[in-house]
Design a protein that fits this description.
Number of helices of chain A: 21
Structural class of chain A: alpha/beta
Order of helices and strands of chain B: HEEHEHHEHEHEHHEEEEHEHHE
CATH topology of the largest domain in chain A: Pyruvate-ferredoxin Oxidoreductase, domain 3
Oligomer: heterodimer
Helix content of chain B: 25-40%
CATH superfamily of the largest domain in chain B: Thiamin diphosphate (ThDP)-binding fold, Pyr/PP domains
Largest sheet of chain A: 7 strands, mixed
CATH architecture of the largest domain in chain A: 3-Layer(aba) Sandwich
Strand order of the largest sheet of chain B: 2-1-3-4-6-5-11-7
Distance between the termini of chain A: 58 Å
Strand content of chain A: 15-25%
Structural class of chain B: alpha/beta
CATH topology of the largest domain in chain B: Rossmann fold
Strand content of chain B: 15-25%
CATH architecture of the largest domain in chain B: 3-Layer(aba) Sandwich
Radius of gyration of chain A: 27 Å
Shape of chain B: globular
Radius of gyration of chain B: 23 Å
CATH superfamily of the largest domain in chain A: Pyruvate-ferredoxin oxidoreductase, PFOR, domain III
Number of helices of chain B: 11
Number of strands of chain B: 12
Largest sheet of chain B: 8 strands, mixed
CATH class of the largest domain in chain B: Alpha Beta
């Protein structure tokens, strides 16, 4: 065997793509876990269709999983691919546009038959043309997999299911990854079925060894460990971090968590994850619909527990009447909206920052509610804890705007030290002598929380306006005005309790980029590249969207131009303009995928060129 | 245990003025509940009344217990959240025919089938009162109301039949003018483990007066209503107008009886509220005037597992098997690695 060359590179982006039944998500997740464990920084982007099994071989059925890994800190999934694995012509067609010139394209040549080409709507064989522009590696993956498994007693159909593992083995060789993680994972998954386990382990090896011998692949790559902050890490997806945040809140606040939820993409994973957390004392309740799910959570809050809901846009809309009752009765509640593309059913599996204005203004009358947004998968954990803290301290519902990208993408997450997590046990009001349901804390304006079971504090509350003093039903005009003011003042006053923004770059200048939510990684990358090209640009990233941090207005005034990249038609920009009377500019991308670094970089370049 | 203080009806009267229309059937129901409360032996602070929207849903404001006046139709969801949070509570859900069966039909169905421990009192006056007189899902076909000047063309739903179809383990009916009967039914409901559904024939004096006149009026009631009692024959009627019900293969026949007839000899059906399947109770619930008497009392009372008990059972079992989860377990278990 000829010795192959090994090249060191800093940065690789690979995408695994195939039919939605081909196991591409599992392949990508295995590659990610392995890569995270060897110490690279990783950022992933799963992309799958809303249909569970669209017709095999069609463009609609293509499922993909992108992994960007690096020896440097990196927080964006990357716009372009160094390598693409395409298990069929449809996968090739959907993804080839993202591959860098002369990039690596590994295809399963067995699937490039006439019928599949037709399903992928190729009028002619695309390979001759592609061979000119890319390094196309054509491997008979189906045939080689069957060949490797000829001595194993499984049907051809079962053997063919191992194709993805063959591709995984090959990429492990290509990027010098160890196979142990996947071997252990296969053992856990198929341990009970010896033939299937053996088939998968054999195929993994076969893929790996093919890399060693295949002449078409003369080079393998080494990506050194990234220099990342010392600590203990795990690979985390946003929905996992959210689930952990919810369970952790119960422990840190010494109060049971009650989750009311109804399955909805892309939030369902949180309910599924928490249903496994019973030994942490979490109560999950799969409701009959989105409205009931919210009612269950608010009922739990009234009963003195930590009520929480997880949902996505169409469900969040349905909950608003219930949320408004929580605003009116001033009960703590955490609502997690894993936003997706809209309007209506929209793009259930694709990302959009769709619901900011809905969270702020989507209820009848003036109904103030704090709104937070995590900026990375791991940040979901932190922001969920912050939401519970604010909800209980201020007796209010709080919305967390996660999204489909944060939910399913992953990053190595530095685990917080247990001692560093703030313990804030819930203190219910117990003293009957001093109790009045709407007697507010002079500082926070929060009312007392006295759940049923507390002797002497029996009281009745509901959605009808309350008397400012007693909390009894009141239809008095002036009282209503006073109550509207105090509800608004309570939420506005939370500004004292949230941190000031830190500015990335000079405090004044020509251009400020203002982001929120999942775009932080892409914005930071674009700014880093802009600076490398000699441009001067600053950015801020909002995690608190209501109330805004106290120093936001001051920061905005320091810049000639303010650009607000958002995965919507311009929602934050609308708020900034109306709140601060600044000429903030919209930069909208609503393409169902994360913000692209090179596109934003071009926008920044164009603006600063204009100014020059 | 704290020393038990004997509570009286007055302890359950809140300081709020009751604002139902004079003559409304709700007054009698409120009074009956307030009288019953001390008998239940539940501490006042453990009692929670939850309602939706409508005339009946103002009920919690008048009870000196915990109370939550929520949103239209969704009270079962709030009640479910409360009882899973604190299974020691005595939860009473107050709803009406519009709140419970129109906007809230879905929640009612699922709450009944899950068998969460609560009493659900549905005040059925066959009209929308708080919005001033529109027909409701229980209004008889042809009801002329403000939105149906030519008579309603909806086929009505029967609350008790709906509850039985939803898998309710306890279904009963009572009448707002029969205090003794109401009290008996409410008490039975309170004692039932799981969801106890009670339909109350309730008079709306303003928008649908005399809807239940035959059953509400003490004079006509014996010939219009059949008072169910477990183990007793299905017999009703005043002296000289005595009748009984025979049931064979699901076919119901009305048999005329003399005052001296032994119903058993005549093959009259014996009421069994504990039938394991709901078929018999469903047939009873669907009997209606004028061809049949209106059965009132407990139609069905069977025991089944209670949602929140099972939920807590699973949590306890998980803790037993896996040990009580700590923050350390939550964050640091699984595939982690350390960067020096």
């Amino acid at each position: 065997m000829a010795t192959k060359r090994v090249e060191e590179v800093n940065d690789i982006t690979i995408r695994f793509s195939g039919d939605s039944g081909d196991g591409m998500q599992l392949t990508g997740m295995n590659f990610t876990e392995t890569t995270a464990l060897v110490g690279n920084d990783v950022s992933t982007l799963p992309d799958y269709p809303a249909e569970i099994r669209a017709p095999a071989g069609t463009l609609a059925g293509v499922s993909g999983f992108q992994v960007h890994f690096s020896s440097r800190p990196s927080h964006a999934p990357s716009d372009y691919l160094d390598a693409l694995v395409a298990m069929n012509p449809a996968a090739l067609k959907n993804n080839i546009g993202d591959v860098l010139p002369n990039g690596l394209v590994i295809i399963n040549s067995d699937s490039f038959k006439k019928a599949n080409l037709v399903k992928a709507e190729y009028l002619e064989d695309p390979l001759p043309d592609l061979r000119e522009r890319f390094q196309v590696i054509e491997i008979a993956i189906t045939k080689l997999t069957r060949e490797a498994l000829k001595d194993i007693d499984l049907s051809s159909k079962e053997k063919d299911r191992c194709k993805n593992i063959f591709a995984l083995g090959l990429t492990y060789w290509l990027y010098n990854r160890p196979m142990e993680f996947t071997q252990t994972w296969l053992n856990q998954k198929f341990g009970k079925n010896q033939a299937v386990l053996e088939a998968n382990l054999t195929t993994l090896n076969a893929g790996y060894f093919l890399g060693e011998t295949l002449e078409a692949l003369p080079v393998s790559y080494v990506i050194h460990k990234a220099k990342i902050e010392p600590g203990t890490y795990r690979n985390i997806m946003g929905n996992q971090a959210t689930a952990m945040g919810i369970a952790a809140a119960g422990h840190l606040m010494e109060c049971d968590v009650v989750l009311g939820a109804y399955p909805i993409t892309p939030a369902t994973d949180i309910l599924q994850e928490l249903a496994k957390y019973k030994h942490f004392g979490v109560k999950t309740f799969q409701a009959e619909d989105e409205i009931a799910a919210a009612g269950i959570a608010v009922g739990a809050s009234f009963a003195g527990k930590l009520g929480v809901c997880t949902t996505s846009g169409p469900g969040y809309v349905l909950k608003q009447e219930i949320v408004n009752l929580a605003v009116m009765t001033e009960l703590p509640l955490v609502l997690i909206d894993v936003q997706r593309g809209g309007p209506s059913t929209g793009l259930p599996t694709k990302v959009e920052q769709s619901d900011l204005l809905l969270a702020l203004y989507g209820r009848n009358s003036d109904s103030p509610m704090p709104v937070l947004a995590p900026s990375s998968p791991g940040d979901c954990f932190t922001i969920v804890l912050e939401a519970f803290r604010l909800a209980v301290k201020y007796m209010t519902p709080v919305t967390v705007l996660s999204d489909g990208y944060l939910a399913n993408s992953s990053e190595p997450w530095k685990l917080p030290e247990i001692e560093s997590l703030v313990r804030a046990p819930v203190k219910h009001h117990k003293d009957a002598e001093t109790f009045s349901p709407y007697k507010r804390d002079p500082e926070t304006l929060a009312r007392p929380w006295a759940p049923p079971g507390t002797a002497g504090c029996e009281h009745r509350i509901g959605g009808i306006e309350k008397d400012y003093e007693t909390g009894d039903v009141s239809y008095d005009n002036n009282n209503h005005h006073k109550m509207m003011e105090v509800r608004a003042a309570k939420i506005a006053g939370m500004v004292r309790d949230i941190p000031d923004l830190e500015i990335n770059g000079p405090e004044s200048g020509k251009l400020l980029i203002v982001g929120w939510g999942n775009t932080e990684g892409a914005i930071n990358e674009a700014i880093k590249e802009a600076r490398e090209e000699g441009m001067e640009v600053s950015s801020i990233h909002l995690r608190h969207l209501n109330p805004f941090p106290a120093n936001l207005g001051e920061i905005l005034k320091g810049f000639e131009r303010i650009v607000v990249p958002e995965l919507n038609m311009g929602q934050l920009v609308h708020l900034l303009r109306s709140e601060f009377l600044v000429p903030a500019e919209r930069y909208s991308k609503v393409a169902g995928r994360p913000l692209r670094v090179h596109e934003l970089l071009k926008h920044i370049t164009d603006i600063l060129k204009d100014e020059a | 245990m704290a020393e038990t203080i004997q509570l009286t009806r007055k302890d359950f009267v809140s300081d709020q003025d009751v604002r139902w229309c004079p003559g409304c059937g709700d007054y009698a129901i409120l009074s009956s509940i307030q009288k019953l409360m001390p008998e239940l032996g539940v501490p006042k602070e453990d009692i929670l009344f939850i309602s939706g929207i409508g005339c009946s849903s103002r009920f919690p404001y008048y009870m000196n217990t915990y109370g939550f006046h929520t949103v239209h139709g969704r009270a079962p969801a709030f009640a479910s959240g409360a009882i899973v949070s604190n299974p020691d509570l005595s939860v009473w859900l107050i709803t009406g025919d519009g709140d419970g069966l129109s906007i809230g039909g879905n929640h009612l169905l699922h709450t009944l089938r899950r068998n969460l421990n609560m009493q659900i009192l549905l005040f059925n006056n066959r009209i929308y009162g708080l919005t001033k007189g529109q027909y409701s899902p229980t209004s008889k076909e042809g009801t002329k109301a403000k939105t149906t000047p030519d008579g309603s063309i909806d086929h009505p739903v029967c609350p008790a039949t709906f509850a039985l179809g939803s898998g309710a383990t306890f279904v009963a009916r009572t009448v707002d003018t029969d205090l003794k009967h109401m009290s008996m039914v409410f008490k039975r409901a309170a004692e039932h483990p799981g969801a106890a559904f009670v339909e109350i024939f309730q008079n709306c004096v303003i928008f649908n007066d005399k809807e239940w006149e035959e059953i509400e009026d003490k004079k006509t009631r014996p010939d219009a209503a059949l008072k169910l009692e477990h183990g007793e024959p299905l017999v009703w009627g005043s002296s000289g107008n005595r009748k009984g019900i025979k049931m064979r293969n699901g076919i119901v026949s009305v048999i005329e009886l003399s005052d001296d007839d032994d119903p058993a000899e005549k093959g009259i059906r014996i009421h069994d509220e504990r039938m394991p399947t709901p078929g018999y109770a469903t047939i009873l619930s669907s009997l209606t005037r004028p061809d049949y008497p209106m059965p009132i009392g407990v139609l069905r009372a069977v025991e089944s597992s209670v949602y929140e008990d099972d939920l807590i059972g699973q949590i306890d079992a998980a803790k037993e098997q896996r040990g009580e989860g700590t923050l350390e377990d939550l964050l640091y278990s699984g595939d982690t690695w350390t960067v020096e």
